[in-house]
């Protein structure tokens, strides 16, 4: 075994392994942070809010497609609840875009999903 192989093996053992849940959590965290920041900044950050809402809707559309697949390994009840949330996101987002509603509900839903991905049940 040469020194390069030993170094590569040692590094590989120490490198963190990212899971699918880690990736999902990061996507939710980034989008939720952007929505929260833009919502707090008010009218001047509306273009940023629009972009974050667009990305959030895309994320939830991907989730809806995944949980609608019968081959998905999640329990059927959980898949149904996630699909329902995706429908809510799709219906609520246009209300935020037309300023008929705030983004708070979307932020709260994403935060709850992030807690679930981390295995937490209470507040963060």
Order of helices and strands: HHHHH
**How many beta-strand runs?**
0
Please give the radius of gyration in angstroms: 18 Å
What gross morphology would you assign?
A: globular
Q: In DSSP terms, counting alpha (H) and pi (I) runs of 4 or more, how many helices?
A: 5
Overall pLDDT confidence: 88
Q: Please give the oligomerization state of what you see.
A: single chain
Query: Proportion of β residues?
Result: under 5%
Can you describe what's shown?
The chain is mainly alpha-helical and 124 residues long. The chain has one domain (20-117). Helix content is 75%, strand content 0%. Helix 2 (20-41) packs antiparallel against helix 3. The longest helix is centred in the middle third of the chain and has 23 residues, at 46-68.
């Amino acid at each position: 075994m040469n020194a390069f192989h030993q170094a590569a093996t040692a590094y590989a053992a120490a490198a963190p392994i990212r899971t699918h849940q880690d990736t999902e959590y990061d996507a939710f965290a980034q989008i939720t942070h952007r929505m929260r920041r833009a919502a707090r900044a008010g009218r001047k950050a509306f273009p940023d809010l629009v972009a974050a809402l667009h990305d959030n809707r895309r994320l939830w559309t991907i989730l809806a497609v995944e949980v609608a697949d019968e081959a998905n390994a999640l329990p059927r009840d959980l898949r149904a609840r996630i699909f329902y949330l995706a429908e809510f996101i799709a219906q609520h987002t246009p209300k935020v875009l037309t300023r008929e509603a705030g983004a708070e509900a979307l932020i709260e839903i994403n935060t709850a999903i992030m807690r679930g991905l981390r295995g937490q049940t209470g507040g963060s």
